[in-house]
């Protein structure tokens, strides 16, 4: 068995060197009465990129100021080492211990966040929030914060791949597509490098834009985003085609999954005929509008199947399929497996088991939506 690397994050107190780092003390600030502390709660299989992007700006703020502006601790449920999603193991400083009301807790999530979010973790988050600590989540950590009931009525964000399931699980949260959101003492970021933007915002709040900009320069991060910036690339960039009407139609498709719009209506909305729309999709995307729309709906369905406990029937309805058997046929054609097998179950009810049996017997022609 391969050895897994074990890492120890550096203390917020710099080591003594014979010579200071070139950037040491390049920003002149008045020493604070006390440093601001962050507690990073690392969930099992958390995402390294989102975590590193959150902690490194704090380290660099200390370095370029020559002051101990920030302190941090790493925590896990049991105070034991935690494995992140890339297999690296990190040692932590504490378990679910009591912290100061002035601390900020950032939950670092990753793969299978629902499984990693245990009852002791939820209770700890609720307790520390009641005592006054600011609480937030990076990447899928927002799911744990929402599960603890701490985002109810609040604006928040989460990685775009988890947005569909989050909306189903937490209707009381005002979910946005922003790279990060700060709503009072609740902080969320979408994951990846979005954590940098969140922490630069915090640094600017605490010590000014000058320090935040210097930290960004140290990170070779030359385009600081705000909470008005969205996570995903624009549709033209994503599909590699800069055609305004095509982008407009795809945007309408993505915004109308539960109640799909007919190709004729989509064409009318952008001022062209159905045949012209068909030719546009064939030319640039090598598929019909109906097929492209179907693929978008099936991708959302797969996200819901893998990330929520919704029944297969409810997933079908949420993705615009009036018939669960029709949904299952289309799903099997696209993913070479049925929704039930995807989830590893034959269904959670007699109705679903009957549909699963129907799927196994049905080898007939597929719906025209997926064939054209």
Describe the structure.
The protein has helices at residues 48-65, 113-116, 119-130, 141-147, 163-169, 194-207, 209-218, 235-239, 244-255, 263-269, 274-285, 289-307, 312-318, 324-335, 339-343, 350-361, 368-371, and strands spanning 6-7, 36-42, 70-75, 82-83, 89-90, 104-108, 134-138, 155-156, 174-175, 180-183, 186-189. The protein is an alpha/beta fold. α5 (163-169) links the parallel β8 (155-156) and β9 (174-175). The protein starts with 5 loop residues before the first strand and ends with a helix.
Question: How does the SSE layout of this entry go?
Answer:
Elements: E1 6-7, E2 36-42, H1 48-65, E3 70-75, E4 82-83, E5 89-90, E6 104-108, H2 113-116, H3 119-130, E7 134-138, H4 141-147, E8 155-156, H5 163-169, E9 174-175, E10 180-183, E11 186-189, H6 194-207, H7 209-218, H8 235-239, H9 244-255, H10 263-269, H11 274-285, H12 289-307, H13 312-318, H14 324-335, H15 339-343, H16 350-361, H17 368-371
This entry's quaternary arrangement is single chain
Fraction of residues in H or I helices:
40-55%
Strand order of the largest sheet: 3-2-6-7-11-10
| Alpha plus pi helix count | 17
Structural class: alpha/beta
Fraction of residues in β-strands: 5-15%
Distance between the termini: 48 Å
């Amino acid at each position: 068995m391969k050895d897994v690397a074990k890492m120890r994050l550096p203390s917020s107190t710099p080591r003594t060197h014979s010579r200071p780092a070139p950037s040491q003390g390049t920003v002149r600030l008045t020493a604070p009465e006390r440093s601001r502390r962050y507690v990073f709660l690392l969930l099992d299989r958390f995402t390294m990129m989102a975590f590193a992007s959150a902690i490194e700006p704090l380290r660099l703020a200390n370095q370029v100021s020559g002051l101990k502006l920030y302190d941090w601790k790493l925590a896990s449920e049991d105070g034991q080492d935690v494995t992140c999603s890339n297999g690296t193991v990190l040692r932590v400083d504490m378990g679910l211990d009591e912290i100061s009301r002035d601390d900020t807790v950032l939950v670092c999530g990753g793969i299978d966040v629902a499984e990693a979010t245990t009852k002791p973790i939820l209770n700890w988050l609720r307790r520390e929030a009641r005592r006054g600590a600011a609480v937030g989540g990076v990447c899928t950590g927002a799911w744990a914060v929402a599960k603890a009931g701490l985002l109810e009525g609040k604006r928040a964000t989460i990685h775009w791949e988890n947005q569909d399931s989050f909306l189903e699980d937490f209707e009381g949260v005002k979910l946005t597509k922003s790279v990060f959101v700060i709503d009072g003492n609740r902080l969320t970021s979408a994951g990846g490098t979005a954590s940098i933007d969140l922490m630069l915002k915090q640094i600017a709040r605490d010590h000014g834009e000058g320090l935040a900009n210097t930290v960004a320069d140290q990170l070779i991060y030359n385009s600081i985003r705000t909470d008005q910036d969205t996570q995903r690339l624009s549709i033209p960039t994503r599909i590699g085609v800069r055609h305004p009407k095509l982008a407009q139609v795809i945007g309408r498709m993505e915004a109308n999954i539960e109640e799909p719009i007919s190709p004729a209506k989509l064409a009318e909305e952008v001022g062209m005929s159905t045949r012209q729309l068909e030719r546009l999709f064939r030319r640039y995307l090598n598929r019909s509008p109906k097929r492209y729309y179907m693929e978008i709906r099936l991708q959302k369905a797969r996200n819901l199947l893998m990330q929520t406990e919704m029944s297969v029937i409810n997933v079908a309805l949420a993705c615009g399929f009036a018939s669960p058997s029709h949904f299952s046929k289309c799903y099997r054609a696209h993913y070479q497996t049925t929704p039930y097998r995807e989830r590893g179950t034959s269904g959670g009810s007699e109705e679903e088991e009957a549909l699963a049996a129907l799927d196994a017997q049905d080898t007939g022609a597929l719906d025209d939506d997926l064939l054209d």
